[in-house]
Specification:
By secondary structure, this protein is an alpha/beta fold. The chain is built from twelve helices and 23 strands. It is 27% helix and 20% strand. A six-stranded mixed sheet has the order 2-1-3-6-5-4, sandwiched between helices. A six-stranded mixed sheet has the order 13-10-12-11-15-14, with no helix packed on it. Strands 22-19-23 form a three-stranded parallel sheet, sandwiched between helices. Strand 14 and strand 15 form a beta hairpin. It is elongated and about 110 Å long.
């Protein structure tokens, strides 16, 4: 039992909901081992508590922080941790409680699974907690049996269920028996229930694009390929084979940058303690050259931007702060006047000021673009170890689809344009599609195609078959092959 409250966590308020939940659970299952914890309304504190407990608990019930106030962060903290969202339970809890008061719609309960642990997030109000537990506790045993894959208990539960009229009686007065949503009995020719009994509302609510992306990224991080390979940096007239890949390990700098004291300005290397005055120009230092001299007090050396600063000099004065005093017949400077005083280090880049030997040049997981490739080249690195890119399959579904080369479209037919658009969209980010397939609208074909593609590719992208029509089989097909439906996005 996890109470989430700034005030309760520091003792400024009494935790009424936490003890009440513990009491209700103890009444439901007297042998339960119950622990209680209280944390502030802080994302890190909440996530730490859940992650510490989920491996040793079969049930976590959190109370508090599910509302809409700025400090209500429980949903934001817990939702990314869940491996499955029990959207049907969450929606059912809210719908039933909303019949008592519309304010229940503001409470945002969350139910899901982390590992083999059921996680339930309820509001902080004891009254609201009581209403939700009244609904939830009768379901808990069956839910926990399902999560724990307790097949004997699950089957026993199903056999005890009475017939429930989910649809009007068929001819002869027979009733439609209970159909548990995780154990749908398919009865039509394609393996689906008869269309007359299909759900009239999707149990998979539409997601915002941001939410869908968050789920995709979370699963991708869990399932990303662990293999790596070595890529060449190539040459300036050829694109590096590493471009568009991510580093499989941190890249460590092997050289300092710069590896010499470099002038930041065009001007003169000086001894700062000399101060303003007239000085002889005794040397010239340019990019790519080293003068090899040691500058002595009372003299200056002309330097260009990026050029090595001679030994003995401890500052650079920009050319704008000087004026010519004398020159030779061939136009060479003989002496100049320094107009301003400078301090040691002025306009000098110290050795290693950009990059130190041994520091992390690119962290693991860095996407290698143009600037990153340039950084590797600056270090003289000819190769880099990168993460292997995932293999991708695209499956298009629909009896209405025909191939691009079809000369004349039949009535009700469309060309399969989505496969072309998706493959080129992926190519723009450097990914290659290794497998294409078009599947007809039958549960068997979609299930078989999904299973085959999942064995050929790391990522399977489907298009079509996710709506509410009687030929939209994708959701059932994912369940048929043992997949985990995190969410559906049309």
């Amino acid at each position: 039992v996890l109470t989430i409250s700034d005030r309760c966590s520091v003792g400024d308020a009494e935790d009424k909901s936490g003890p009440y939940i513990a009491e209700r659970i103890r009444d439901w299952a007297a042998s339960s081992q119950i622990t209680r914890n209280c944390v502030p309304d802080d994302v890190t504190a909440i996530q730490t508590a859940v992650l510490q407990e989920h491996t040793r608990c079969s049930l976590i019930i959190a109370t508090g922080g599910t509302g809409l106030a700025p400090r209500d962060v429980t949903i934001s903290a817990v939702s990314p941790l869940l491996e499955k969202h029990a959207t049907g339970i969450s929606a059912g809890l809210m719908a039933i409680c909303a019949q008592h008061t519309p304010f229940a719609l503001l409470s945002n309960p969350l139910v899901g699974i982390k590992g083999s642990c059921l996680v339930v997030c309820l509001p902080g109000s004891k009254k609201a907690v009581a209403e939700y537990l009244d609904i939830l506790i009768p379901l808990l045993r069956h839910i926990l049996d399902l999560i724990g894959d307790e097949k004997t208990h699950v089957d026993a539960f199903h056999t005890k269920l009475p017939g429930v009229p989910h649809a009007p009686p068929a001819v002869g007065g027979s009733k439609v028996q209970h159909v548990c949503p995780h154990k749908t009995k398919h009865v039509d020719a394609d393996g689906r229930r008869g269309v007359a009994f299909r759900p009239r509302h999707s149990v998979w609510p539409m997601l915002k694009v941001e939410e869908a992306l968050e789920k995709i990224v979370m699963v991708a991080q869990e399932k990303s390929p662990k293999s790596s390979e070595t890529k060449q940096l190539g040459t300036p007239d050829s694109i590096s084979s590493a471009h568009g890949y991510s580093t499989a390990a941190a890249v460590i700098a092997r050289e300092q940058v710069p590896n010499y004291r470099a002038s930041i300005k065009d001007g003169y290397a000086v001894v700062s303690s000399d101060g303003p005055g007239v000085y002889a120009v005794v040397a010239v230092s340019q990019m790519g050259e080293g003068s090899g001299i040691v500058l002595e007090k009372g003299s200056v050396a002309r330097v260009t931007t990026g050029a090595p600063v001679p030994l003995g000099a401890d500052a650079v004065i920009q050319v704008e702060d000087t004026e010519l005093v004398s020159s030779s017949s061939d136009g060479e400077e003989l002496s100049i006047r320094v107009l301003k005083a400078v301090t040691p280090g002025t306009d000098i880049r110290p050795v290693g000021s950009d990059i130190q030997t041994g520091e992390v040049l690119l962290p693991e997981g860095t996407l290698l673009g143009a600037s990153e490739i340039g950084l590797l080249a600056a270090q003289g690195l000819k190769t880099v170890i990168v993460r292997s890119k995932p293999s991708i399959a695209i499956l298009s579904t629909g009896n209405e689809l025909v191939q691009l080369e079809t000369e004349s479209l039949g009535y009700g037919k469309v060309r399969d344009s989505n496969s072309y658009a998706l493959s080129h969209l992926l190519a723009e980010d450097g990914y290659t599609v290794s497998h294409f397939s078009h599947l007809p609208d039958t549960l068997e074909a979609v299930s078989t195609g999904l299973l085959a593609a999942s064995k050929l590719a790391d990522v399977v992208i489907t298009t079509g078959g996710v709506s509410m029509g009687e030929t939209d089989h994708l959701k059932d097909a994912i369940s048929e092959i043992g997949g985990d439906r995190r969410a559906m996005q049309q």
